[in-house]
Amino acid sequence: MLAALPRVIAARHTVELVSDVEAFEALRREWDELLTASNSRCVFLSWEWLFTWWKHLREDRLLSILAVRRGSELVAIAPLALRPRRFTRACPLPVLEFLGSGFVGSDYLDVIVRNGAETEACQALILHLAKGRVPLKLTNLKRGQNVAARVLAGLSEQGWTTAEARTNTCPFISLAGTTWASYLASLSAEHRYNFNRKLRSLNRNYEVRFEQVRSEGQCCEALDLLIGQHNTRWRARGGSDAFHTAELVAFHREWTRVALECGWLRFYVLRLNDKPAACLYGMQLGETFYFYQSSFDAAFTQSSVGLIAMGLAIQSAIGEGDGEFDLLHGSEGYKSHWSRESRDLGRLESFPPGGVSSVYRLSVELGRASRAFARRMTKRGQAK
Known about the structure:
Elements: E1 8-10, E2 13-18, H1 21-26, H2 28-36, H3 47-57, E3 62-63, E4 65-70, E5 73-78, E6 80-83, E7 95-98, E8 112-113, H4 118-132, E9 136-142, H5 148-157, E10 161-174, H6 180-186, H7 189-205, E11 208-212, H8 216-235, H9 246-262, E12 265-272, E13 275-285, E14 288-296, H10 305-319, E15 324-326, H11 333-338, E16 341-351, H12 355-383
Parallel strand pairs: 7-9, 14-15
Antiparallel strand pairs: 1-2, 2-4, 3-6, 4-5, 5-8, 6-7, 9-16, 10-15, 10-16, 11-12, 12-13, 13-14
Helix pairs in contact: 3-9, 4-5, 8-9
């Protein structure tokens, strides 16, 4: 559908459709330069993360990246994919989604715009999308701090119907100007005492090493350890969707190698007497540490090795001069012990005017309501 759309020019801005993988691959240098020159810089919007996602997790989506140029200069990218219609899954119309959507957990997705070019670039995207008349479902946006909301607001002025919802929260730690000692002093007395006591106990009873992955061989070993520990722990609790498909595992095998090559990988293994007790998988881009996943060996549960690994990772981030330690989405209780601040994630949807689109919007809303009702009933049954 999108391939048939004409180019749209707003002033000197041209919107180009990138619909084949070769063209996507060729954008790498320009993409990452644009990301650095935007207010949206994060690891989940990097070309490297999204290209790796496309290779392994695209499913049946069609590549539909919109690149906005001012002359030859790339000034904006809408990193989109087209989800085809599938009546079997109550999807009677194709839908535009962000690259990086799904179980992989890409937080802070957005339209990437060069600083100073927001007004013209957004207007060019609005005109292009309005002509296409394809519904949009944009997830994992940073609420109140995203460019996509501006684009969808423009579509609303064209008669589109837009809906917004809060979907998750991301706790984070502001580290700018802090030392490890001052950060520890900011924690609750109980949590600070617990961490220090457990760390002293480990050092008394074991030879403790907190190793950062530095080579591809270490990378493969650490990822296998983390996946094994994670799945073992979650198997008795009904399973986890972190590594539950071969495609997700393949994604992480390639992504960790790519991130290592880029200098972004922050993967640690906590060893006690040379035995791996816990793993922590994160990334660093700019001055932000992104905590992605962790695991631990159940044999060391009483030693709180997960707690120790998190504290040592935060200490390492401070030592590298990071300004923020982002715990990413999730309301797990342990995150609140380490953080005092959070930001919300949201979902934005936009539907073009017309009868078919209205029916689709209603079906989406009814489906969402029925799933929410089923979850409430399940929780109520478990509580009895």
